[in-house]
Amino acid sequence: MALASPAHCTHSFVMVKLDNTLIQWTCHICYCSTFWFTWECRYCLLHTCKNCMDKVQTGRCLRD
Ligand SMILES: [Zn+2]
Ligand SMILES: [Zn+2]
After folding, report:
1. Ligand nearest to the CA of 3
2. Distance from the alpha carbon of residue 22 to the mean position of ligand 1, in angstroms
3. What's 11-57's CATH class?
4. E strands along 1-64, which residues?
5. pLDDT tens across the length of the chain (64 residues)
6. Which top-level group of life is the source organism from (predicted)?
7. What's the CA-to-centroid distance between 1 and ligand 2, angstroms?
8. How far is the CA of 35 from the centre of ligand 1 (A)?
């Protein structure tokens, strides 16, 4: 089963928390560090910060 492409995905984000606070994840859209939590799309596995999650969900981001 192939993963959806982030650019053509309808994104359904779930918050993912890390127990290990030494790990920083990076938002795949604005490249800021999301620290101990991230939002991950369950379809394309895109990781975003809160701001970018709002943008992609309202269709203002990842449009080509
Ligand atoms: Zn997605
Ligand atoms: Zn971001």
Report:
1. 1
2. 26
3. alpha beta
4. 13-17, 25-26, 33-35, 37-41, 47-48
5. 566 676 788 899 999 887 776 777 889 999 988 777 889 999 999 999 988 988 887 765 444 4
6. Eukaryota
7. 27
8. 20
